[in-house]
Amino acid sequence: MKRPKNCERNLPMKKKAHIYIVGMGPGNPDYLTPKAKEIIENSDVLMGGRRHLKDTRHYGKEERSIEGDFQGVVTYIQEQAAKRKISVLVSGDPGFYSMLGYLKRHLQDIEMDVIPGISSMSYLSSRLGETWHEDAYVSLHGKEEHLQQAVKNKNKVFVLTDATHTPNELAKALKDYGFENKMMIVGENLSYEEEKITKIPLKEWRDRQWSNLNTVVIADE
Fold it and tell me: Which residues, 6+ apart, have CB-to-CB distance to 148 below 8 Å?
């Protein structure tokens, strides 16, 4: 039997598995970029933490939580990414301490479009009216010597905290390292109506209750 010419053109192309990693900005939907809104609107499934899923519920998309089960996230994406439009919602900018790195390591066969957002560092700098291109930034999940070196060598250091690694814990560590001449600036609930920015010299620091949504700057007094 004679093979038809150009029969390859009639063969169905297998759809490439693909997802979006969407930066949600500092929190307030007013700071969500138009491109991020477009991607969310055209998604079938939104994956994210409780706060982001709540903020996007009005889009009426299927929701899947990513909290506490990263392996489950990977498995779901591997099974569904070629069939459905999936967007993973991350805080701030995906390139700044998000789960983007984890997903790239565990989903190497999945194409990813990364949609940038406004990071907490960028937002807090704007509220302080300062530049940040020469500042250092660290996560309290990292090694303690990284924090010490950054504070020693830079006038300003941004620190990402969480419910476990709190501003109180950070202040104690800085005092133990001998940095009592520094000041801590704590930005709580950044971009929301209840936003609060507090500046406290370390020598005057007293532990207090902080919002779980906070970012810290260590600066010279």
Answer: 177
Domain count, the chain: 2
Of 87, 118, 149, the residue that ends a domain is 118
Confidence check: pLDDT of 24 > 80: yes
- Predicted confidence at residue 144, as pLDDT, reads 72
Distance in angstroms (rounded) separating the CA atoms of residues 157 and 16: 41
How many CB atoms lie under 10 A from the CB of residue 114? 18
- Look at residue 26 and tell me if it is in a domain: yes
Give the separation between CA 80 and CA 20, rounded to whole angstroms: 13
Q: Are 11 and 50 in contact (CB under 8 A)?
A: no
pTM here is 0.87
**Same domain, yes or no: 111 and 203:** no
Tell whether the model's pLDDT for residue 105 goes beyond 60: yes
**70 in any annotated domain:** yes
pLDDT at 11: 45
Looking at the chain, the number of H-run helices and the number of E-run strands are: 7, 10
Structural domain ending residue among the three candidates 83, 118, 153: 118
Structural domain span for residue 72: 16-118
Per-chain mean pLDDT for the chain? 91
